[in-house]
Importin subunit beta-1/Transportin-1-like TPR repeats domain-containing protein
Amino acid sequence: MYCDKRMTMLMEYMLNNSVHRCVKPPILNVFVDVALAIGTEFAKYSPALLQAWLQASQFQVDCNDYDLVEHVNELRENCIETYRGVVL
């Protein structure tokens, strides 16, 4: 499919810890757009997306670092929105 390269690149960015944290939540929104555009063909990207969700859910944060807490909350909210957009 024509979006394989782009999806692979986006997945790599999601799983790469050196990518700035402000980039990851919008990437999750792109996944929803792609899922809506290609429909059932999106299923082949599900394992990698599940890995990104798992990584986001296991991220440990120091509660005294308010910026990081806010980022993790935003990331987790985007995971939920992505899940809803992809599954529905």
